[in-house]
Amino acid sequence: MMSGGNVRVQLRVLMVVIGMMMMVVGRVTSQNYEDALTKSILFFEGQRSGRLPPSQRMTWRKDSALNDGTESNVDLVGGYYDAGDNVKFNFPMAFTTTLLAWSVLEFGQFMGSDLQYALDAIRWGTDYFLKATSIPGTVFAIVGDPYGDHSCWQRPEDMDTPRTSYAVTTTNPGSEVSAEMAAALAASSMVFQAYDAQYSLTLLNRAAMVFDFADMYRGSYNDVFGALVCPYYYCDGSGYADELIWAAAWLYKATNNQSYWDYVLKHINSLPQYIKRMDTDGMPVSGGSFAEFGWDSKHAGINILVSKLVIDRQLNPSPFVFNADKFACSILPESPTKSVTYSPGGLLFKPGSCNMQHVTALSFLLLVYSRYSNDAQRGIQCDNFVVPPSRLVQVAQSQVRLKLSNQWIYVLL
After folding, report:
1. Against a cut of 0.85, is the pTM above it?
2. Which residues lie closer than 8 Å to 191 by C-beta, 6 or more apart?
3. Where in this chain does the record put each Glycoside hydrolase family domain (predicted)?
4. Beta-carbon contacts of residue 30 (< 8 Å; ≥ 6 apart)
5. pLDDT (0 to 100) of residue 313
6. What are the beta bridge partners of residue 349?
7. Which among 249, 250, 23, 213 is positioned nearest to 132, based on CA atoms?
């Protein structure tokens, strides 16, 4: 079975990329970005767990998993299923929510009638994360039994597999999942400032609390849940330091609290320059951490996000802008420092399981960075030549076109 999270990662980032394409290049007659955006957001309604609202558009889905958390004496109803699975893996789910929030912050005003559905998708995640972090010193990380679930293909409405809830605690910490939840809550708090100020404050306060927990009680959730997450591609291969810095950066962006910025500066140089991950054959490969971004590795995302902050607030750009440029240059086909390959049909390829995760996530960052660089009226320095921000848009657009034109057979030949 293909990892459900891999499917969800592809679709959630595709939604973000499509939205950015609508903003930076406008509507193109040969590619219906608007329709694709609508369908990408609709996907999240199909993944909802819990009691469905009257606004549910996928009416063939019904209420499910209404007793989640009962054996732990906590309400864990809600959240999202892991694509074709009925387990709720909160680490990739939190990353989903962070990216959804980032997409709305960047281009929500261009989303038209889909904006409200995007807000609903974010809130469906954050409502659940508020429940999963409601007990001080405890963060729930998984709901459901991965082994039982993966051996029995069932509709969520009919499932009879165990709904065990698993938590990280002060004695068995999981900084990755906790910090990613903090990032999701902080990013989402910014989204809801204009729509529900009290809810926004609730999210922000909880984000700070969960971040403190993740930082104070450090440890990898691999050590706690390795037997549950590693067989399903959810082992953390890059450590938890990137999630802690990622969360601190979002909290600084949301609060302007100097202590979070100090945290980012203190720890950014402690990130490893190289990280190991698995290729499509399950073999370990090493790569520069500055070029990695996904539910597991936040390195490139940190640099892109912080590049905007340091440019706008006239802070020291090192090492963030330098590494953001390095990331962009690692993708551009003509760059002397390119670290990816392209198929004869033009599809970006990067070693690692489920290549379309890389295509969509990296395309999103290219689009975001092109906007930041354009606003700053600066080019991207690639070794001995400078690339205009518009070139990043062209490369990202080429990847989205391939995804939307159903040319997979031709692309991969």
Report:
1. yes
2. 101, 104, 105, 108, 119, 122, 200
3. 33-400
4. none
5. 86
6. 341
7. 213
Backbone angles phi, psi at 216, to 5 degrees: -70, -40
pLDDT of 278 over the 80 cut: no
- In sequence order, the 6+-apart residues with CB closer than 8 A to the CB of 272 are 238, 239, 289
* Residues forming a β-bridge with 140: 167
Backbone φ, ψ for residue 284 (5° rounding): -70, 140
Write the pLDDT tens digit of every residue in 312-343: 888 889 999 999 999 999 999 999 999 899 99
Q: Which helix (H) or strand (E) holds 166?
A: strand 165-169
**Encoded tokens for 296:** 């597991």
Measured from the Cβ of residue 5, the count of other Cβ atoms closer than 10 Å reads: 26
Question: Which domains are present in the chain?
Answer: 1-236 (1.50.10.10), 272-413 (no CATH)
Pairing of strands 274-278, 165-169: unpaired
d(CA 50, CA 53): 9
pLDDT the model gives residue 138: 98
Residue with tokens 């590693």: 230
**Confidence band, pLDDT 50/70/90 cuts, at residue 407:** very low
Burial of 298 (0-12, 13-18, 19+ CB in 10 A): buried
The reported pLDDT for the residue numbered 22 is 53
Beta bridge partners of 142: 89, 166
Asked if residue 17 has pLDDT above 70, the reply is no
Can you say whether the dihedral through the CA atoms of 283, 285, 291, 296 is positive or negative? positive
